[in-house]
Write a structure and sequence with these properties.
Helix content is 38%, strand content 21%. By secondary structure, it is α/β, with parallel strands linked by helices. The strands form 3 sheets. It has an 8-stranded mixed β-sheet, with helices on both faces. The chain has a 5-stranded parallel β-sheet with strand order 5-4-1-6-7. Strands 2-3 form a two-stranded antiparallel sheet. Helix 10 crosses helix 11, helix 12 packs across helix 13 and helix 12 packs across helix 15. The protein is globular.
């Protein structure tokens, strides 16, 4: 699967050579290729021998500059430019593609970067038909992947400008991680994350939609996920963990952490919270187990296991089993606020419970507090919301659940408690 396509400019993206004439134009159909790949969640960048100012000015004039992230423009080696882009995006070269019209540039890139996917410029209109550029499913994250990467770039730039320590910077990011059980509407994104993740994937394994669904439906399985928000924006679902339960142990079949959010402690916070929830809800468990397939590209997953206290038990070839005895003394980091389920989870959460947890999380975000439950009074003489924050909650509920509060719905009967709000939403979405 291609995660990033890197374009040459002269006689590839546009017709003509910019250093010879500024009257270059996009090649026929190039805009449609840019748009469709962007919709599929393929990040696009540039490696071109051109004056940076002149090239960016022309891209802006042509109305396509916003499609490209971390463009590398100058007179150095294109192989070096491609390496830099992959490094900035934190993805492996096997997930990167390069398109150019010059046989020498293609040969150099192929020779210096043997895992790189290389295409002749003549193929540009056919790229959309190739299976490696076709996403198995379209998700909200895919549609806004470019924007999500720009959020990442904003954070990196803010960190460079920050004068304090790294921990002080992380605290300033106001990170909020919601850890919960997955529900039906999460299925497409969960499958996409499993398919796309290599570095933070303990088995570098691809599982089918049918297998993922069993972890949502079986009484002896769990599918946890995490959603991240910070002061830079909403990053969506960034982590997934699939667990099998037994009488004495739990097995982490698979965990995946998006490479977009590396270096913030999100992996430790997510998996640590999941293990803490499991041991609380199943006090008879004696240990957690996690399989690991050793590959160079997924070493970050192994480091995460070590940070949490896992120790290797058995090893056979490139497969190992890591073990963590319970009770597990997990301590949350002080720069990530974790919102976790407040309901008992020793059974499968019903649709009502899923809606309830999402409403609780929205109220918690507005209040900046964590102590919110089903019976929390929202409006009234003892309510935690006033008219302004109540309207803010209604707007968030309408966006979150795709419902509409009419004038007749803005009553104390509906808005007085979390549970009343949940019942109203359930009545509108069922």
């Amino acid at each position: 699967m291609i995660k990033c396509l890197i374009w040459d400019l002269d006689e590839t993206l546009w017709e003509g050579t910019l250093t010879e004439s500024r009257d270059v134009t996009l090649r026929p159909g190039a805009l449609e290729v840019l748009e469709l790949l962007d919709e599929r969640g393929v990040i696009q960048s540039i490696a071109s021998r051109n004056d940076p100012g002149e090239a960016m000015s022309k891209l802006k004039e042509l109305g396509v500059d916003h499609y490209f992230i971390y463009p590398q423009l100058g007179w150095g080696s294109k192989a070096d430019s491609i390496r830099q882009i992959a490094r900035e995006l934190n993805i492996g070269m096997e997930a990167v593609a390069f398109i150019d019209d010059n046989p020498f540039e293609l040969h150099e890139a192929r020779t210096c970067l043997p895992d790189l996917n290389v295409y002749d410029a003549k193929e540009y209109r056919r790229l959309m038909e190739y299976p490696e550029f076709r996403a198995p499913r379209r998700t909200g994250e895919a549609l806004r992947r470019r924007q999500l990467m720009l959020l990442r770039a904003d954070r990196e730039e803010a960190e460079k400008q920050f004068a304090g320590t790294r921990e002080e910077f992380l605290r300033s990011c106001s990170m909020e991680l919601t850890v919960r059980l997955a529900c039906e509407e999460d299925l497409a994104r969960v499958c996409e994350l499993v398919e796309r993740t290599n570095q933070w994937n303990n088995r570098v394994e691809r599982v089918s939609e049918e297998v993922v669904r069993t972890y949502m439906e079986s009484k002896m399985k769990r599918l946890y996920l995490a959603e991240l928000q910070d002061r830079f924006g909403d990053h969506g679902i960034v982590s997934v963990a699939m667990l099998d339960l037994d009488e004495a142990w739990t097995d982490i079949r698979l965990f995946c952490i998006s490479c977009r959010i590396e270096g913030r402690g999100i992996g430790t916070a997510f998996l640590g919270t999941v293990l803490d929830l499991v041991q609380q809800n199943h006090p008879g468990l004696q240990e957690a187990r996690c399989g690991y397939k050793s590959e160079r590209r997924n070493r970050p997953a192994l480091i995460l296991l070590n940070l949490l206290g896992f120790v290797r038990g058995e090893r056979k070839g490139d497969h190992s089993i890591y073990r963590l005895p319970f009770p597990f003394p997990y301590k949350e980091s002080d720069w990530i606020r974790v919102l976790r389920p407040v309901l008992p989870s020793d059974h499968r959460e019903s649709g009502h419970c899923q809606v309830q947890q999402r409403v609780i999380n929205l109220v918690s975000r507005i209040l900046g507090e964590q102590e919110v439950g089903p019976e929390t009074l929202l409006l009234g003489t003892r309510g935690v919301l006033d008219s302004i924050t109540a309207v803010e909650l209604i707007v968030k509920l309408e966006k979150e659940f795709h419902v509409v509060f009419d004038e007749d719905d803005l009553t104390l009967d509906i808005l007085s408690t979390v549970d009343n709000v949940v019942r109203f939403i359930k009545s509108r979405i069922e």
